[in-house]
Specification:
The chain is mainly alpha-helical. 79% of the residues lie in helices and 0% in strands. The chain has one domain.
Length: 205
């Protein structure tokens, strides 16, 4: 199934919708923790702090949206409260690992330089994906008259993408091929994730 069809199926079922929100919240929280882990103890800049804080806020906001569906649903990120938990947990970790391998092979980066370069490319690829995923989700929410909304996240993610472009321009002498590589890696992992969502929904039907 395509993402639009998957989301339509998910929001038609309150239990699945709650777990979908929880899954997105978990992934946003994972992103926030990865950004924090990439920070230098001394040289961390304002934008990294901003991005980590906003990803954490997105995780919190999505978690709060669950209460519009069921106030008792999905108290934690345990597998029973997620959709395709194994693939959803692995998605960002695999992206981080593969982009780190690419950077090591291409530039020989290590240590804090590797962490920062990976932060730039991973975050860029994720923001490109978020700019696609959240509007599709919001359109489905609007079409069904749902009380759940993700409009505020869409606005912030658009801002993140513009900021990441500026940061990459400052770090890489030519950021375009590296950004394209990051997006290509993410696209393959994203397709695997969407396939796992489809398999999960079919099994749960």
């Amino acid at each position: 199934m395509q993402l639009t069809e998957l989301i339509d199926s998910i929001i038609a079922d309150n239990d699945l919708h709650a777990r979908w929100l929880n899954t997105l919240s978990m992934m946003e929280n994972t992103g926030a923790r990865k950004i924090a882990a990439a920070e230098d103890k001394v040289l961390v800049d304002l934008l990294m702090l901003k991005h980590a804080a906003e990803e954490s806020r997105h995780a919190y906001y999505l978690k709060k949206q669950i209460q519009k569906i069921d106030t008792a649903a999905c108290p934690t990120y345990e597998p029973a409260y997620l959709i395709a938990p194994t693939e959803s947990h692995a998605y960002l970790n695999r992206l981080d690992v593969q982009i780190c391998r690419y950077l090591k092979k291409t530039f020989g980066y290590e240590g804090t330089t590797l962490k920062y370069a990976a932060y730039l490319l991973v975050t860029y690829a994720i923001e490109v994906r978020a700019d696609e995923l959240y509007p599709i989700y919001q359109d489905a929410l609007t079409a069904t008259g749902s009380r759940v909304q993700v409009k505020s996240i869409i606005v912030e993610e658009e801002g993140h993408l513009a900021e990441m472009l500026r940061q990459m321009e400052m770090f890489f002498s030519d950021w375009h091929p590296h950004a394209e590589k990051a997006v290509a890696i993410e696209t393959e992992l994203y397709n695997q994730w969407v396939a796992s969502l489809s398999t999960y929904l079919i099994a749960a039907a």
